[in-house]
Amino acid sequence: MLKVHQVRLWSFAALVFVGALSAQCNAQDKASALASVGMQAKDVVLSQFVLNKEAAEPTTGKPLVANGTWSASESRPTDCPRTTDTCITLIYSVPNTSVACQWTVLLLGDGSGGQVLSENDDAARYYLAQLNPLDSGALVISRPLPVYPQALRSKAAGLNLVLQAKVGTDGIIESVQPVGGFMTMISKGKAFLAPTIQAAKQWTFRPFMIGPRAVKFQTTITFHADEGTFSKQGSFAE
After folding, report:
1. What is the DSSP string of 179-237?
2. Where in the chain is the domain with CATH 3.30.2420.10?
3. What is the CATH number of domain 131-231?
4. What tens digit of pLDDT does each residue of 4-30 get?
5. Which residues pair with 230 in a beta bridge?
6. For residues 215, 70, 110 and 108, what is the CA-based torsion angle, rounded to 10 degrees?
7. pLDDT classification of 35: cutoffs 50, 70, 90
């Protein structure tokens, strides 16, 4: 009887060990899966948003740093649609600050990309949506052309002027800067800079929405100088 009892005890201990090992493996598998979808969601966010260099973090008085910590929540956000696709809350936090940027991200089933469904106040403050010209073009309400001096007509052929525009939540452009190869053509393109920026600042857009929130975004605007207008007086039109 003693041997039978010992065998039963050993059998019970083995079952407990196997159960604990299985639970540990399941926990590790769950953590690994969460880390994997978190990385996918991070890739989605960073492909669609950039740090807003003009938004200062109160603790440091400087723009938010890019070496913070990314994490994903285990619970499914309430604003996720009813779908079998993975939908998570992605969080970006920075040590020694109160900043916690959050996005609800819906991942495509094949893992090739995803969609940001919503973001919190910190994400809206410290990150800018980044729209390609096609997507931002669909939001354009008005797009006046530059007016160049008549004397520049002969220099306009083949000159493309690329500007980066930051657009506010109301669809009004907040800032414009030249980018790309424009400044490398300084001898030919410098005279076109002021009228081109002046025209770009007058562009207006419909607000860009992420969920119920209008958010700031940045995009590029390309002007083809030979498609602009030229004032006969050789100066800006009044």
Report:
1. -GGGGGGHHHHHHHHHHHHHHHTT-EEPPEEETTEEE-EEEEEEEEGGGSEEETTSS--
2. 131-231
3. 3.30.2420.10
4. 455 454 554 444 444 444 444 455 656
5. 148
6. -30
7. confident
